[in-house]
Amino acid sequence: MADDPQTMHRIAGRLRRLAAGASPLRVAIAGHRWNQLDRIDGERLAALLPRLFALLDRAARRRGVLICGMAEGVDLIAATACPHQWRLAPVLALPPEAWRRHLAALHAPSVALFDRAMRDAHSEAPVVVSRDMPDFDAVAARILADADLLIAVWNGAPGLPGGTASVVDAADMAGIPVLVVPVPMIGRCRLIGENAP
Description:
This protein is of the alpha/beta class. The chain is built from 7 helices and 7 strands; from the N terminus they run αβαβαβααβαβαββ.
């Protein structure tokens, strides 16, 4: 299982290096959409993320900010699991109403999750990277711009530009540690990157 106690203890020890500084811990999330994430893994992820966020709270000892692209699947699961003591920093590929229509066309149940996350009192005003056509490379670049850590829910396979694999590669090249949550969620979480704590 992705969150076995031994793995989480080891990761917590490595994440303690993130405790430096008084500014909030900025955690980016990237991961698969529903076309590569089944319902069971979605449920497992919804149960795992609060434990990961609590682990980050204990390890970093500073308030968190979740930087999220708000796409259907992993992004919206994470946005709805964002702890109330954290801030949610949405990064949208389109203006909010256009993004709602985009979500409705792809996965209608995601619209309610999006609305709930955007209404939440701990959500910051969204950063919109494009006005007319979704630019997922720009979303990926923006979520990593200020990130201290990337949580990637990833099957390990190469993907499309702006997708999970390209975000993981960009984070690694930028020296941002990456906490990989495997999909399917039968493996162990692991930290990757030259500068992983």
